[in-house]
Amino acid sequence: MRVLLVEDDPVVARGTTVLLRSNTMAVDVAATGEEALEVAALYDYDVILVDLGLPDIEGYEVIRQLRAHGSTTPVLILSGLARPQAKVRGLGLGADDFVTKPFDRAELLARIQAVVRRNCGFSHPTLEAGPLSLTLGSRELLVGGVPVRLTGREYAIMELLLLRRGAVLTKEAIMSHLYGGLDEPEGKIIDVFICKLRKKLARFGAGEMIGTVWGRGYVLREHPLPAAPALHDPAGSPVHVA
């Protein structure tokens, strides 16, 4: 999951970034409203966290301009303002949720997951495709009901593939999702992660669900590919097609 954090307080920004990255989220930080609007226009984010008290323009104005330019990215307000009027105004301008500072770490993570699920058309904390089932709360992948152990990076890739199943994801998009532009290794590392994921899924007959679109990237299919049919020679012996 890729997050844009719009926060001018360096202490809050640093602490929130550490929290999100420790939960396998890639985080970009913007310290001003203008910077946030510029970055949001250049990159795709799964969610944007906006502080209201920015040094140049109000967080409200950031939200208004995002929506005016057609952005449908979920926006979650992080603010020390607890009065109902602040929440009503923010939600009225197009924010999806409002979390009051200081916030509980677990609650913030749950709110982020909730707005992302709603934006992707999911009303429950489980992403599914064919035999695959990914539970966001417990961060558990099941294949045909059997749990599959994943590393943090593998989980992040599976989450992204399931959230955007059917869409081709470039290596650059996956890299950005994993590392957020910071200390990125060579792009071939994505091939390594995908290879390992396919091997783990292949044990359950689902390895081919992650398809390669040559020259473009990877895509998660809705269902495993059917097994190749066996042909028969004139003598009746089966001939398997590789």
UniProtKB/TrEMBL annotation:
Pfam families: Response_reg, Trans_reg_C. The keyword Transmembrane helix does not apply. Gene3D superfamilies: 3.40.50.2300, 6.10.250.690, Winged helix-like DNA-binding domain superfamily/Winged helix DNA-binding domain. GO terms for cellular component: cytosol; protein-DNA complex. This is Response regulator transcription factor. PROSITE patterns: OMPR_PHOB, RESPONSE_REGULATORY. Residues 124-222 form the OmpR/PhoB-type domain. The modification 4-aspartylphosphate is found at residue 51. GO terms for molecular function: phosphorelay response regulator activity; transcription cis-regulatory region binding. CDD domains: trans_reg_C (cd00383). SMART domains: REC, Trans_reg_C. Keywords: DNA-binding, Phosphoprotein, Transcription, Transcription regulation, Two-component regulatory system. Residues 124-222 bind DNA. Signal peptide: none annotated. One of its GO terms (biological process) is regulation of DNA-templated transcription. Residues 2-116 form the Response regulatory domain.
